[in-house]
Design brief:
Elements: E1 8-12, H1 14-31, E2 37-43, H2 47-55, E3 62-70, E4 81-85, E5 95-103, H3 107-117, E6 123-131, E7 144-148, E8 154-155, E9 171-174
Parallel strand pairs: 2-3, 2-5, 5-6, 6-7
Antiparallel strand pairs: 1-9, 3-4, 8-9
Helix pairs in contact: 1-2
Bound molecules: inosinic acid and magnesium ion (MG).
Residues 42, 45, 101 line the site of magnesium ion (MG).
């Protein structure tokens, strides 16, 4: 694997990502002692982050995935969100941690957070590898942010552009 690709600028190396994932895992491990943690990864973007994060948490936990559809241009989400895939496990009395790749405008995560706060889950918090805080149009607090970044359109480590680049171990900005 080369570390630079034509037309892409390296933003986060694999080592930087792995180091931060371990830190977040330790923080979640401390915060969720004696709780019933369910990691709910948002497909497809969060599949790699969720896979690494769950292995950095030293607790009994459950992992599941949801899939959302949003309507709008490819790099901008519109306000209309719906769940294409519901969690397959019972959330009643559980402590749900939504795991996202990127919270950008906040549209998707605000909708998800409100949706699961209306579920029988005991608590709902948000973890996102990347928090594009400055771009928020809908208020959402990321309880566990990986990196605070606003550096263009990012790909790699699960993040795609038209379904490409998800397999890159590092994160790049498309030029
Ligand atoms: P939001 O609803 O505007 O917060 O958009 C969040 C979703 O947009 C994320 O789950 C990503 O799938 C996608 N997204 C936002 N920014 C990027 C990016 O830089 N690269 C890849 N996907 C992105
Ligand atoms: Mg996504």
């Amino acid at each position: 694997m080369t570390t630079s690709h034509p037309g892409q600028e390296l933003i986060l190396s694999s080592d930087q990502i792995q180091g931060r994932v371990q830190e977040i895992g330790r923080q979640i491990t401390r915060d969720y002692q004696n709780k019933k943690l369910v990691l709910l990864g948002v497909l497809n973007g969060a599949f790699i982050f969720a896979a690494d994060l769950c292995r950095a948490i030293v607790l009994d936990l459950e992992v599941d995935f949801i899939r959302v559809a949003s309507y709008g241009a490819s790099t901008v989400s519109s306000g209309a969100i719906r769940l294409l895939q519901e969690p397959g496990i019972d959330l009643a009395g559980k402590d749900v941690l939504l795991v996202e790749d990127i919270v950008d405008t906040g549209t998707t995560m605000a909708w998800l957070r409100d949706h699961f706060r209306q579920s029988p889950a005991r608590s709902v918090r948000v973890c996102s590898l990347i928090d594009k805080k400055e771009r928020r149009t809908v208020p959402v607090t990321v309880d566990y942010p990986g990196f605070d970044l606003d550096r263009g359109f990012l790909v790699g480590y699960g993040l795609d552009c038209a379904e490409q680049y998800r397999n890159l171990p590092a994160i790049y900005s498309l030029k």
